[in-house]
Amino acid sequence: MITTPQLVETRTLLQNISWQTFKAILADMGNERNSRLTYDNAIVEIMTPLMPHENSNRVIEGFILVLCEELGLEVKSTGSLTLIRNDLEKGAEPDSSYYIQNEFLVRDKENIDLDKDPPPDLVLEIDFSRPKIDKLSLYAAMGIPEFWQYNGTVLRIYTLSASKYSEVEFSPTFVPVKVREIPQFIQESKKIGQLATKNAFRTWVRQQISNAQAHN
What we know:
This protein is α+β, with helices and mostly antiparallel strands.
């Protein structure tokens, strides 16, 4: 029996695109769209998420908000914020982005300008298929402190040091919680539902925090 892989996202590549043309494409497409654009080295990638992709994104976002609540961290969710660096001629629209450490600097801002404002503290990308643009290189160049990448099975955590990412076991933002175990809760949500899983995740986070406190 031949099985067909489930389609969770589509990717379209445009080559030899100038920076000015990329910004014109963004302007012409507007904000009322489902696709997400990335630009680097004269290449534009247009990614259109389908249900499994978007569902994973939303579930993980719910978990991130629980983590912030339980660890007493304020957060500003900025979704697929269009990140533009004119000086680098690089642009990206991640699946989700968050200001946590620098939340107070952008709390009242309706528009964020990376020429003046700090980049998000945490960016999440759902990449079931291999991106055509190297996200590690791109987000490192843009100075994103922490980058999460979920491929449908594994959640990888990267932190920025000396302009390069290193994969780490623990998120420095959410120590002591073992956030790399989040995929098991994503799978659980398919069995018992998102809200039930969110409650189970919160209980698990509290236990992780309690265990860490008991050992200090």
